[in-house]
Amino acid sequence: MRIFKNRFFFLVIVLLSFCVFSCPGYAEVQKALFDDAVESARQGNIEYAFMGFHSLLKKYTEACPYYKDALFAAGEYHFLSNGYNDAEEYFTRYIEAYPNEEKIPFALAYLLKISRNARDEVISSAIEKKIIEWEQLTLLFSEFKEHKYISPLYRKHTAMYFIDRIEFYIDGKLFEKIQF
Amino acid sequence: MGNYSKKSNSKPLIISVAVTIVILIFLVAALATGIFFSTHKEVIEKEVSSYLNQELSIGSIHYFPPCFIILKDVSISEDDAAAGHPPLAVERITLVFSLREIINKKGLTITKLYFIKPKVDFFKYPLFFKENVEGIIAIVNLLAKGKPIHIVMEDALLILDRKGQSVSAVSLTTRLKVGAGRVISSRGKIDMVSFLEGGAKKEISPVLSTQPLQYAFDGAIALDGLAIDNIELTKGDFHASLEGKLKQNVLRLKGGSSIENFYDMGIPEPGRSVEFARNLRHLLLYKRLPRKSGFSPGGLNILDVNCVINFASRKIGIEDFSFSVDNMPVQLAGDITFEDKTFFNMKFSSIPARNPANRSRDKIRKLDVYLKGQIDEGKTDCISNLYVVRIANKQEVLHKIATEITGASFGFSPDRRLKLFMDGFFLSSKSGDDSYSLDFKNVNALFNLLNSRVKFVKFDSEIYEGGLTGHAAMDLGYIPFKTNVNFMLEDVNARQLDTLLLSLVKPYRKLPGDLPGRVEGTFDCEISYVSYPRSTVKGKVNITDGYLDNVQFFIWLAEFFSIPSLNHVEFKKIFSEFSVLDEDRFSFETIKLDATDIQLDGFFKLQENDLVSSKLSLSLPRKILAGSPKFQLLLKLVGRDIPSLGFDFQLSGSPKALNFKWLEGDFKKRIEKILPGFIERGIERKIETAVQSIRTQ
Lengths: 180, 697
Hints:
The complex is a heterodimer of chains A (180) and B (697).
Chain A: H1 2-22, H2 26-42, H3 46-59, H4 67-80, H5 84-97, H6 104-117, H7 121-134, E1 138-139, E2 145-150, E3 156-161, E4 165-170, E5 173-179
Antiparallel strand pairs in A: 2-3, 3-4, 4-5
Chain B: H1 2-39, H2 41-52, E1 55-64, E2 68-77, E3 88-97, H3 99-103, E4 110-121, H4 130-144, E5 149-163, E6 166-178, E7 183-196, E8 205-206, E9 213-222, E10 225-235, E11 238-247, E12 250-259, H5 274-283, E13 300-312, E14 315-325, E15 328-338, E16 342-350, E17 364-376, E18 379-392, E19 395-412, E20 418-431, E21 434-448, E22 454-463, E23 466-475, E24 482-493, H6 494-504, E25 518-530, E26 536-549, H7 552-561, E27 568-581, E28 585-595, E29 599-606, E30 612-621, H8 622-625, H9 632-638, E31 644-654, E32 657-662, H10 666-674, H11 677-696
Parallel strand pairs in B: 4-5
Antiparallel strand pairs in B: 1-2, 2-3, 3-4, 5-6, 6-7, 7-8, 7-9, 9-10, 10-11, 11-12, 12-13, 13-14, 14-15, 15-16, 16-17, 17-18, 18-19, 19-20, 20-21, 21-22, 22-23, 23-24, 24-25, 25-26, 26-27, 27-28, 28-29, 29-30, 30-31, 31-32
């Protein structure tokens, strides 16, 4: 009886180990989900890409290394779909969760666009100021400083900081401009 | 026939004899009365003095038939009265008495009293003193013996101030009737006047306006005081109506007043809708009040006047004097004591934010003024504290302004303007953490108060080794008042003023750090300020032969260029044209600094959102740059033929982290020719890192 018990426990342990080591890990699942979504975006299928990012946001927390990009992508998707309220919510969550993230100015640019469309001067003013204060320029020999970012939805974002203005471009087209 | 002609001849003879006898009787009576008065003048003086409890003197007493007694040069004298200026003097008093009463042996009963040109010194003989008022009433009662009496005063003067021959006074012409049943009624006019005393021809000129204040008074003498049925005051568009009583030395009055067309004067300003204000008032309950209350649509209304004043011996206590001005409550309380000097202690309170017509951005929630001082020989010393609670950026801010005035005196100029002189005027202001003070000496101010709505003042004084001149206008038709001020300062010590100037420029405090900087030099400026439609200050400033020590901009410059000597800059001249809008946005439209070690030219503005916009041209001598580790290499590259290097640069962004761009210039072109691109980028990154490190400190 005792031998039977020991063997039983041994088998359970072996079976569990097999399950653990043979199934894919959380990290790999997250990566797979993210890569899948990015690939869909690269192929132009942004709805399917959004489903993937949305699934990541639903299943995981900020501990997930892809959560940040998923937030940005969700905000970007809703913006492109004219869901400005949802876009505002996702970009705001992005800024609050990752206040030191170097892509914050791009998220702020979306929020600026939304507030200007809504003709909310007070909020627009506050966002402009935040974008301006984000970067301190020292232009000795250059005319501007440039930052580039390819978003999870595979859109090329560029921010150009001049001494008296900031210009945001998406896929080569002027998206927003701040003059000061 | 003979008898008839005898009779007809004797009749005219009898009549002429009778008339002659009557005339002789009158002449004898007049002569006798005249002699009587002359011989008993001192007795009369003594008797009247006892009623007044003061030393009375009469120049001469004359009797004119049938019923006139004339007293000339009547005066109240004091031991220390200035020569020729007794506290109370009357050129002539005419008493008209009732012949019937004398014939009926009921004694001398006066029916009319004429005072011709009485003069009273307000401070030396306060008429409203209990004992003085009682004495005068006792004499009038004695003369009238309960019968109706008319009292007339012509060109009475209440002297407020004397400076040499120049006299400032309140002029009064009045007719008062005490009728049956002790009913009193009086009509007259009051005005402020100035004149030259002792001159060959006296010219009395009104100083406040071409129209005097007309008054009407109706009341009755009660056992313990006076019942006031009505006091009406009228002057141009100003009307006031009051009623109350004087009982046991306590005066109580209630009523209201208005200035018609007050808000309709002049051209309506943008942002103020007179029509809207008028329509708003039509909706108010006040519209249904009777016209007597004086409510005036389109006018300034002072309603709910409630006044309680206590007249004690040598003291007036204002227990309560409250009213509302266009629904804005105002209250005054305090006391005035008359001893060897006149002392006053007053408090004034208001809650301006309750005014529905208040369109100010910064609403004044509460206003309290405390005033305490003394008046001696026509000069006033006083201290005041003004507390204002303002709403700014949705927060309550307490603002305190304290003033100390020494040797203030008033007078009137020949062209009817109010003159004010002060030996000293010290002002200190504190609002939150900001404070500054100003110290003026020998202040002269000339006010033009003839217009009932817009007041003007011209002023000059000494301040901090220099001089101040300027003028201001205040339109009372706005709440808060619409104000324009223009002034000039010349040869003022800049060190005394730098804290004031820097604290007035509010955004300066948003720059990094405190305000350790000082400015030294001789300061000249021209500044103008308007409060409407927005608070705007514009000016030109010139400082010569001084230095800047740890001024914020040069601290940044010193750190950026790694040249510590820029923390202290000795200069020949600094010139700037500047403006401050809404106390928030300032700009130096022009900056020119001419110093031994540095030349600076350009502009610097702080705009909306507290963002900087600036272009500056900086010239630094080679020897100064050689001390900077950042420039040593560059100096070697550009060669030794340049005695100084020019930097044109542009600044922008947040004052806490300014963006910097080196603009094109001769020096930059030389550098660009020499350095390859990758070295340029390396230098740029290095300097960027250094700048970032300044920001994080």
